[in-house]
C-alpha cells in the first residue's frame, strides 16, 4: 500500500502510528506541499481534495487520517485498537471527533498563521486551545488511556496532535492528566520514535525555515 504524506504533518503521523501499531509496512511517498506536488494531475486523480495523508491500496484511494486508520484496522482485523464493544467504540469515536473537530483545529487556527503568514499571536485563539486542553484533561479522569485501560486508536490520534502542540511550544503544565497520559502513550505505543518523533523533528525544522523566510 502507498501512503502519500508530508513530514511534520500531525494527520500523517496518525496513520504512521497506526501502521506501526499494526506492524505493517507502507510504501511512503513524500509530497512537497509547498512545491505544489499535491496539485499535480496524477495526484488529483487519486484525491480531488488534494490532501495528505492519502492511502492507495491496489487502486483503492482513501484520504482523511481517521478514515484511513479505521480502514487499516479493519483490513488487518485488529480488535485491540478499535474494540467491537459498541460503548467503547462510541467513546473512541467521540475522542477522534474531538481531536478532528476541536483540539487540532484550535491549535492550527492559533499557530499556523504565525508561522506561515507572520501574524501576531492571537490570545483569544490561544484561550480556545487552553479550553480544549481542559476538556481533554477532564476526559482523562478515571481513565489510564484516552478510553479506559488500554491503548486504542483514540490515543494514537490524540498523541499526534498533542505532541505537535508541545513541539510548537504549547505548555502542558496546567493539565496534569494530559501530561501523565502523554508520557504513558509515548512509552507504550509501538514504534513511537520512528513513526512520530522523527516527524516532530522535521516539523520543528519546517517552523524554523518558515520563520526565517518571513
TrEMBL record:
<protein>
    <submittedName>
        <fullName>Glutathione S-transferase</fullName>
    </submittedName>
</protein>
<dbReference type="GO" id="GO:0004364">
    <property type="term" value="F:glutathione transferase activity"/>
</dbReference>
<dbReference type="Pfam" id="PF00043">
    <property type="entry name" value="GST_C"/>
</dbReference>
<dbReference type="InterPro" id="IPR036282">
    <property type="entry name" value="Glutathione-S-Trfase_C_sf"/>
</dbReference>
<feature type="domain" description="GST C-terminal">
    <location>
        <begin position="85"/>
        <end position="206"/>
    </location>
</feature>
<dbReference type="InterPro" id="IPR010987">
    <property type="entry name" value="Glutathione-S-Trfase_C-like"/>
</dbReference>
<dbReference type="InterPro" id="IPR036249">
    <property type="entry name" value="Thioredoxin-like_sf"/>
</dbReference>
<dbReference type="Pfam" id="PF13417">
    <property type="entry name" value="GST_N_3"/>
</dbReference>
<dbReference type="InterPro" id="IPR004046">
    <property type="entry name" value="GST_C"/>
</dbReference>
<comment type="subunit">
    <text>Homodimer.</text>
</comment>
<dbReference type="InterPro" id="IPR004045">
    <property type="entry name" value="Glutathione_S-Trfase_N"/>
</dbReference>
<dbReference type="GO" id="GO:0006749">
    <property type="term" value="P:glutathione metabolic process"/>
</dbReference>
<feature type="domain" description="GST N-terminal">
    <location>
        <begin position="1"/>
        <end position="80"/>
    </location>
</feature>
<dbReference type="InterPro" id="IPR040079">
    <property type="entry name" value="Glutathione_S-Trfase"/>
</dbReference>
<keyword id="KW-0808">Transferase</keyword>
Amino acid at each position: 500500500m502507498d501512503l502519500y504524506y508530508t513530514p511534520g504533518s500531525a494527520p500523517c503521523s496518525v496513520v504512521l502510528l497506526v501502521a506501526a501499531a499494526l506492524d505493517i509496512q507502507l510504501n511512503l511517498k513524500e509530497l512537497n506541499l509547498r512545491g505544489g506536488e499535491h496539485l499535480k494531475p496524477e495526484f488529483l486523480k487519486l484525491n480531488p481534495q488534494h490532501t495528505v495523508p492519502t492511502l492507495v491500496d491496489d487502486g483503492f484511494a482513501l484520504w482523511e487520517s481517521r478514515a484511513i486508520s479505521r480502514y487499516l484496522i479493519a483490513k488487518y482485523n485488529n480488535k485491540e485498537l478499535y474494540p467491537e464493544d459498541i460503548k467503547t467504540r462510541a467513546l473512541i469515536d467521540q475522542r477522534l471527533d474531538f481531536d478532528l473537530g476541536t483540539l487540532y483545529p484550535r491549535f492550527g487556527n492559533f499557530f499556523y498563521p504565525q508561522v506561515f503568514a507572520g501574524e501576531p499571536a492571537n490570545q483569544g485563539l490561544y484561550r480556545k486551545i487552553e479550553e480544549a486542553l481542559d476538556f481533554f484533561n477532564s476526559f482523562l479522569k478515571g481513565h489510564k488511556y484516552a478510553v479506559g485501560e488500554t491503548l486504542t486508536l483514540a490515543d494514537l490520534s490524540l498523541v499526534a496532535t498533542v505532541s505537535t502542540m508541545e513541539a510548537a511550544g504549547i505548555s502542558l503544565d496546567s493539565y496534569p492528566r494530559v501530561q501523565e497520559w502523554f508520557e504513558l502513550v509515548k512509552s507504550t505505543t509501538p514504534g513511537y520514535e520512528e513513526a512520530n518523533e522523527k516527524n516532530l523533528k522535521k516539523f520543528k525544522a519546517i517552523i524554523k525555515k518558515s520563520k526565517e523566510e518571513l
